[in-house]
Structure formats: C-alpha cells, structure tokens
Design goal:
335 residues, alpha/beta, 434 Repressor (Amino-terminal Domain), Rossmann fold, 3 domains, 6-stranded parallel β-sheet, 4-stranded parallel β-sheet, 12 strands, elongated
C-alpha cells in the first residue's frame, strides 16, 4: 500500500480505504487507486484483515453431494446472493460421510468464517455436539438434524411425497414401487414417511418388497428397476427419491420393453433442469433450488449482523409438475 500511495500521491490511509471499497471516497479516487493497485499486482492480505476484524468475509458451505445437479443450483443461489452482500463462499463436499462433516465444521470454525451453511446428515453424535456448542452462525440447507431445531431451511419433503403418492393412488394405482434415497439424511426419512402415510390413509397395505433403498444416483434407479423386474415384482407406478433415480428407472423400463407412461408411470423429485428434456419428459416435484440457496444465505446474513436474533425453521412450498412420464387418466382400467 505504501508503494501504491507513492505512485498515486494519496496517503496510505486513503489507499487502504479505497481498496476496502469505502463509499465515502469519490468514485474517481477509488478508481485511480484500484487501477493502480491492479497494475502493480497488489493482492489483499486476508490474514492481516482477519487479525484486525476477528472474523472473515467468507461463508463456509458444506455440501452433501456436489456431484448432484440439485446442489449446484442451490449453491448458485447462495453464491450470487453472498457476492452481492460482499461475502465469498468456501465449498467443501462430504459425500454424506458424517466424519467429514464434523471435520469440515471444525475447519471452518478455526478459519473464523462469518457463518456456515450445511447440507447435513440426520444423526451423528459428534456432529450434533458441534452444532449444540459452536458460536458461529449456521443454518442447514434443505435438511434437518435430529434434536436440533430452529436452524433449517426446508422444502416440504413429507407433504410433497405424500402428494405424489396420492396423485398416483387417485388414478387407480395400488402397487407403487418407491425407490428410496441415501440412508441417514432427513430428505429420505421424510419422503418415505410421506409415501407410507398416503398408503395408510387410503387403506393400501405396506409392502416391504416395494421399497428399495439406494444412494440416490442414476445407476441406482436403473439397478432398482432391473432388480424388481428380475424378482417378478408387480407394480404399475414408480415414485422416486429424486430425478436422478427416475432417469435411471425410465432407462431400465425402456430396455425391458415397458412403455412409460402407458405400462408404468414414473414420478421424480427436485425438478432438475434436464428433467424437462428427457424422453419422456419427467413428472416431478418442483423444489425452488435457487430460492432455497438465496433464502438460506439471506437468513444466515441476518444472524451474522445480529447475533441475538432468534433462530427459526423455514419451510418453502413446492409444487407438482405433470409431464409425459405420467398419464392424464383419472383411473386405470381394471385388469
């Protein structure tokens, strides 16, 4: 900064203020200093700034599965909103391993990030102890954690899967195969409970053979359908944990000469961008992914600005989107 001051003729204090983006300086002064700094190869010393402030202008993001396009859209909502507020994000991925989640939480706390957004596992003793004791503001994005209340931004998982199952029942389906997501995450638990509740409310017996547990990837949907068909399971509809599973399921049905939706209807969850371009296009639950990220970071920033602000859970609305992987008939013909 001393070199920049000598080059521009401004004081070191003015240079420091300009590089911090101080709006009290004239635009011309800030532009002159910043252009000179860039020309001279100036790089801000973040460590020194952290020592002065005690916290950084960085938000830690802990994702459960960064390979899933769902999380890419959520992170985009977080990053764009954070950038507008003058914050940067640091992204780490756990692949749903709780030990990584705990380690990354400790890492971010030690880095003195301003706040943390987490896509967590449902139950882990070590993680839960951290969440009960840390002072850094944090929120769970799209999930909740057993025993921790007031820190979740959710999207109606139970009700959405209930509505999907009910819509299939209303069309006469009684044998609905459900392909479940990864174990130990709240989305899987809540969506499965929504499916089961719809069966119970309509007097349809629960059949364990019609519930297949997976890791929630495309290949899992493909393998699940092949497994069910090889066992000669009878089903007329497939409800899937997410769109990725549904994509694999449709491919497997097609390769086994089943027509979707004429022979078997398929319903996804998440409304990934690609789902509308599938053949057939996928009926699914529209989760407001970008809005989920945007609301999560906005809520977190309010707590960063006011540490005394009470925490509260938020539940976003979803909607069912009917495309070509389901038909428009109200009732199926009796066999």
């Amino acid at each position: 900064m001393k070199d920049i001051a000598e080059k521009t003729g401004f004081s070191i204090n003015t240079v420091s203020r300009a590089l911090r983006g101080d709006k009290k300086l004239s635009e011309n002064t800030r532009r002159t200093i910043c252009e000179t700094a860039e020309m001279m190869g100036y790089v801000r010393n973040s460590a020194a700034a952290l020592m002065r402030k005690g916290t950084s202008n960085e938000i830690g993001i802990i994702s459960g599965d960064s390979s899933n396009p769902f999380f890419a859209e959520v992170v985009r909502g977080i990053e764009e909103t954070a950038k507008q507020a003058g914050y940067r994000i640091l992204l780490l991925n756990t692949d749903e391993f709780p030990e990584r989640e705990a380690d990354y939480m400790k890492t971010f706390v030690s880095m003195k990030v301003a706040g943390i957004l987490i896509v967590p596992v449902f139950h882990d003793d070590v993680c839960q102890k951290i969440y009960r004791t840390i002072s850094v503001p944090y929120y769970f994005v799209g999930r909740h954690v057993e025993g921790i209340t007031g820190h979740s931004i959710l999207h109606s998982d139970f009700q959405s899967q209930y509505d999907v199952t009910q819509s299939l029942i209303n069309k006469g389906h009684r044998r609905i195969l459900y392909i479940v997501g990864p174990e130990n995450i709240s989305n899987t638990i809540d969506r499965l409970n929504g499916y089961l509740k719809a069966l119970d409310n309509n007097g349809i017996p629960r059949d364990p053979d019609l519930i297949i547990r997976t890791n929630g990837h495309i290949e899992d949907g493909f393998a699940s359908i092949n497994w069910a068909l090889n066992r000669s399971l009878s089903f007329t509809a497939v409800a899937c944990f997410n769109d990725l599973v549904a994509m694999g399921a449709i491919k497997a049905l097609s390769e086994n000469n089943y027509r979707v939706p004429d022979d078997i209807e398929v319903f996804g969850f998440d409304n990934l961008y690609i789902s509308q371009f599938m053949q057939p296009s996928l009926s699914t639950v529209d989760v407001p992914k970008f809005a989920l990220g945007k609301i999560a970071i906005e809520t977190l920033l309010r707590h960063i600005g006011n540490p005394q602000l009470p925490y509260d859970d938020i539940n976003l609305n979803t909607r069912l989107i009917f495309r070509k992987s389901t038909n428009n008939k109200l009732f199926l013909k009796e066999e």
